[in-house]
Amino acid sequence: MTTKIAHAPRPTVQIAGETFGGGKLFLFAGPCVLETPEMIQRLAGELCAIAAERNVQMVFKASFDKANRSSTRGARGPGIERGLELLAAVKQRWKIPLVTDVHSPEQCAQAAEVVDVLQIPAFLCRQTDLLIAAAETGRAVNIKKGQFLAPWDMGNATKKCEAAGNRNLLVTERGASFGYGRLVVDMNSFAHLAKTGHPVVFDATHSVQEPGALGTSTGGDRTKVPALARAAVATGEVDGLFFEVHPDPDNAPSDGPNMVKLEDFATILDGVLAIHKAVRQAALG
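Now predict its structure.
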């Protein structure tokens, strides 16, 4: 006799007028930082096609500024003015929701005019003024868990946004600091993050970072991304996956060692979706 395991309904979030989550896996995908218009448009189109072929909802991700680079020599991106122009062009052409990082309260309202999800970088997840400013825009807010933070402490971050009148939130795991220059992913973390009551996202690419490993830049090992993504989904507590994807990551201006090659992304996604389907079938009995 097979015992059916009871599971609570998965949480949802509203993004660009659509419901994400509720038991259906969704994606945040795109490059680390905005580059040329031609590259961004090509990548957005190919990612949209991959997601559409698999009936997976996707939010296109790219940063206009990488404010926490290891060195002053690191490429930071085009800045907010030009960056939002590039993102608006992607939205207009591909009709896809957008997510980008914000680093200061002053950027939130401006970014919210174009993007559908404001992302709080992990290092800034306790910055009260930033969280409140993002929440007050009314856009969905994705809060990345700091590498230094216990997963159960993320409830404090979400409550700051809720106090500002916004419950349209997501929480993202991206690994925890382990000694010097290493990150690890605690699979127990997802259950704790789920207790916030908001959809849980796993950032599979930033979780393989090796901070500062290359001296003036961050290293990493993209070969570990598929296994971590499959393991995270297998917990049954993950609602969305975050992948940084690039056609030529070895020559990307930022986070190249961690990013998935575009040519490999569909295969990686298929493996993850197979695990997700099996977990959902087991949960439903």
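The longest strand covers residues 240-246.
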